[in-house]
Specification:
This protein is 21% helix and 27% strand. The chain is α+β, with helices and mostly antiparallel strands. The chain has a single domain, classed as Alpha-Beta Complex (Peptide Deformylase), CATH 3.90.45.10. Bound molecules: ligand 4LI and nickel (II) ion. Residues 110-112, 153, 157 line the site of nickel (II) ion.
């Protein structure tokens, strides 16, 4: 099972590299890795399991965070309406996005960053994302709100980008024009 010792932290080269696309259909190894990544997210959100294995809670994780520079990422969470987002994705690509921006009012956290980095992370408000899922099916997702932010955070990891790269250095809490806060 994946635990915090498997997650590389800031300064590890895997986090700033552009990862490689994976072959489709997925190899057994890549599919198994996606399954393990989803299981980690479920474990991290379960109070008992997280306490037992000292896991930090996350709703997304990308293979570079495990030191593996492959374009593989996992997302697992329920939104406020109880809609389940649970995906193991290969070669995700943002194919279109809104002009408008959005940001998490609470800022962003990352399993590979062991410190609080203050500031708003401006991102596209809405995105259309294409990818291949764990069963080798094409996925075409139109996302907005919190899900849109989470998917963008993880796609960034596959391109070697950390959330704080987006924070305005002069004014971390500057609200970009036509940006909306996501509570
Ligand atoms: C510094 N301020 C903050 O962190 C921050 C502060 C306030 C609000 C938000 C909204 C913040 N921001 C933020 N909160 C989260 N979680 C909220 C708690 N939750 C969780 C916790 C416990 C059980 C189950 C669950 Cl579900 C896990 C997820 N996650 C992310 N990110 C950035 S996008 C990828 C995602 C990620 O998984 N990071 C590890 N950001
Ligand atoms: Ni992260």
């Amino acid at each position: 099972m994946i635990t915090m010792k498997d997650i590389v932290r800031e300064g590890h080269p895997a986090l700033t590299k552009v990862s490689q696309e994976v072959d489709i259909p997925l190899s057994h190894e890549d599919k198994a890795l996606l399954e393990e990544m989803i299981q980690f997210l479920k474990n991290s959100q379960n109070e008992e399991v997280a306490a037992k294995y000292n896991l930090r809670a996350g709703v997304g994780i990308a293979a570079p965070q495990l030191g593996i520079n492959k374009k593989l990422m996992a997302i697992h969470f329920e939104d406020e309406n109880g809609k389940l987002y649970s995906y193991g994705l290969a070669n995700p690509k943002i194919v279109s996005h809104s002009v408008g921006k959005a940001y998490l009012a609470g800022g962003e956290g990352c399993l590979s960053v062991d410190r609080q980095v203050e500031g708003y992370v401006p991102r596209h408000a809405r995105i259309t994302l294409k990818a291949t899922d764990m069963d080798n099916n094409p996925v075409n997702l139109r996302l907005k709100g919190y899900p849109s932010i989470v998917f963008q955070h993880e796609v960034d990891h596959l391109n070697g980008i950390m959330f704080y790269d987006h924070i305005n250095k002069d004014d971390p809490f500057e609200v970009p024009d036509n940006a909306r806060p996501i509570e």
